[in-house]
Amino acid sequence: MKKYRHSFNTAEKSRIIEMAWEDRTPFEAIERLFALNSNQLVSFMRSELKLGSFKVWRKRMGGRQTKHLSLRPAGILRGYCKTQYKHSRGK
Length: 91
Fold this sequence. Notes:
The chain is mainly alpha-helical. Helices cover 46% and strands 0% of the residues. It has four helices and no strands. The termini are far apart.
């Protein structure tokens, strides 16, 4: 597995990790935005997460159809769930 060669700032690292954990964000979106293919993303996550968190993430992502555009069911058109981004209401 090739190590990723990118240097990301803290905000970028945080966003990559967030996108990697999201069920509906495909790996292809991460690759398009941050130039990390799925193998490089695994390497990135291994280096950025604690071992236990990395193992949970790998287990969770294994076989998840929504993470691959080619495996994604036809009914899923968005890269996120409707309730994922909550907005404050007039507070």
